[in-house]
Amino acid sequence: MSRVINFGAGPSALPESVLEEAAKGLLNFNGTGIGIAEISHRSKEFTAFMAEVEGLIRSQLDVPETHSILLTQGGGSAQFSAVVLNLLARHRLLYPDLPDEERPLDYVVTGSFSKKAVDEARRLGGGRVNVVVDSRASSEDGNSFDSIPAHDAYAFSGPDPALIYYCENETINGVQYSNDASSPASFPFHLLPKNTLVPLVGDYSSSFMSRPIPRLADHAVIFAGAQKNIGPAGLTILIVRKDCLVDVDAAAKLGAASVPLTMAYKTLADNSSLYNTPAVLPLYISGLVLRRSQELGGVNYYEEVNKRKADKVYSAVKEGEAKGVFRLKVKEGSGSLMSVVFDVVGEGAEAKFVSGAEAAGMKGIKGHRSVGGIRVSLYNAITEEQTDVLVAYMKDFFAQ
Ligand SMILES: Cc1ncc(COP(=O)(O)O)c(C=O)c1O
């Protein structure tokens, strides 16, 4: 059976050339005579490959030596918990005597995933959750995540929070921060506390490696699951500033919550991400994707291509909107380059749009079950030509 164009939100499309190479590695990894899913994670061939993966991330994102790159499991969801536990431990070591109410956890809530993250922080306790801004407050209907908030809407807690959290691309709601500092939809880095190592956490799950990360060095933790832009599910990538690799047991002695060892950033760093068995196969495929992206020109290459792809889809949505066929679900300026969300207007029109797309060889365009509508994911592996096929279909659809 031939392959279709997969616009799914994750797990999502991977480059075919990588899949073909990975198939060979499944039988024989790097000339070892052992398949990649069978080889010891402590073999010299695999540890060398892991070091290469780390190096590929470091060089393509320009990660400075102040930050460690850690490779783990558990997905973005495990990080919703891990960032709270590790950064509360750090805060405890810095300020042992403060009561929990004076350990602010600042959350910027712009969509379903940052909402899940703040809910987890509340569930874990140990600090005081402060919602810096919730973009639903300024939405069209008062209840949707349809924009990146204006800078003057952010209310940070003060000079020394335990963490400041945001999600760079909200995969379900289709809103993304602009990486142009002069845009009103940029993250307000200039409003962050000064004269301190800011405990800034960015969830980059659905935009990692799709373009350069603004102010990367100013982040305490950046995390991302691999399953959007760079590989299969099962690998989680962390970029952690070294002052956040704290002794969680020393913090627990001072009253912080105990942290499971597999979630403690210091455990991962002290063991070169090999404290326990890593996700060997996802790591392998991700490494092949990263090698390929390095050859193509890295994040700068992808930024250009991804912009062109998104521009084409957004202009088709707008054209359809003018004809009363489509309706964009996010406000101008906040639309994601990775996740384009829109409605097809009219009784039964959405089902017709989806089934027509499937008949034309395109799958994965149904919106998340919590919000409905259409969602087109334009991750790195989706080519410009494949995007053109979708755009032509959209134009045919509204011309009917
Ligand atoms: C932005 C974002 N954060 C977090 C998650 C959760 O990741 P996981 O399913 O790997 O736990 C996702 C998953 O789609 C996501 O898109």
Characterization of this structure:
Belongs to the class-V pyridoxal-phosphate-dependent aminotransferase family. SerC subfamily. Its cofactor is pyridoxal 5'-phosphate. It catalyses: 4-(phosphooxy)-L-threonine + 2-oxoglutarate = (R)-3-hydroxy-2-oxo-4-phosphooxybutanoate + L-glutamate; O-phospho-L-serine + 2-oxoglutarate = 3-phosphooxypyruvate + L-glutamate. InterPro entries: Aminotrans_V_dom, Pser_aminoTfrase, PyrdxlP-dep_Trfase, PyrdxlP-dep_Trfase_major, PyrdxlP-dep_Trfase_small. There is one protein chain. With 400 residues, the protein is an alpha/beta fold. Helix content is 36%, strand content 15%. The protein has helices at 16-27, 44-61, 75-94, 112-124, 248-253, 265-270, 280-296, 298-322, 349-359, 384-399; strands at 5-6, 67-72, 104-109, 128-134, 163-167, 169-170, 175-176, 200-203, 221-225, 236-241, 326-328, 339-344, 362-363, 374-377. The strands form four sheets. The protein has a seven-stranded mixed beta sheet with strand order 2-10-9-8-5-3-4, sandwiched between helices. The protein has a three-stranded antiparallel beta sheet with strand order 11-12-14. The chain has a two-stranded parallel ribbon with strand order 1-13.
